[in-house]
Amino acid sequence: MKSFLLMVVGAPMLVLLALAGRLGLCRDQADRTGGQNGHPNTGKGQGHEDMITTQRKSNWSRWFLVAIYAIAMAWVESAVVFYLRSMINRIEPHQPDPFPIIGGFGWVELLREFATIVMLFTVGILAGRTWRARLGYFAIGFGVWDILYYVFLKIICGWPHSLLDWDVLFLLPMPWWGPVLAPVLISLLMIFWGTFASQFERPCPPSWPNWRAWVLNFAGVLLALYVFMADTLAAAPRGLQAVCSVVPVKFNWPLFGVALLLMSAPLMQLMCLPRWRQGLNRNDSVQPQMNTDEHR
Question: Which domain holds residue 221?
């Protein structure tokens, strides 16, 4: 059984490492070939094509490396949660008294969750060249981490039994409750958006979704948070003990669907508006001239 688990966890990571290494090797070879053929990356024509190809390969290698980090973090996260839930007999969290307190686990767990977000955000900063790309890599890492967390929990302890099983999604500022499917859908959206934001990175970025799309996105985030915390918010006036004793029985899927649609506004605008594709083509044509001027 242990060998099977090692194979399930290790094989995808080895494949991603090999792909990332291959992309890095291709990038180095392109750089050397461009210099030998007299086509520096600051030139036009073939040199410019080599530059674009090299940058894209570099971005994808970063994508794979961030994914590898997120996969490893997902295993660590699922292992820690398995240990904690085994100690308090809460492998399935959706049951009466979902947060039995043992010792000082409460504040330690809160800080651990915060530290996890800091780690993922730090990797995004290290991977991206611009703040847009850094946020994109953070979104990719978060999405991969969150989805694989549930996959690894299923391998380790057999839970969740289905995507509709309830889970405690987060504890800050108070417990979030929802079916496993809900955070998985949000994570998929983050991966898609993060990929667009990071893989089409340019020194002169194309027109980005306007502020209206981000206002809709922010409204969707607030609405989703309300859906996740609706029951705990209702129990908050009765004190901490009442909040910790909440066991929701019904999830507001229609309202969550509206929230998910609002959160997808920036991504949908990028995918639907022709100016995104025009912006990419425009940057591809402008970049050589900019580099030529800098070279002079």
Answer: 2-295
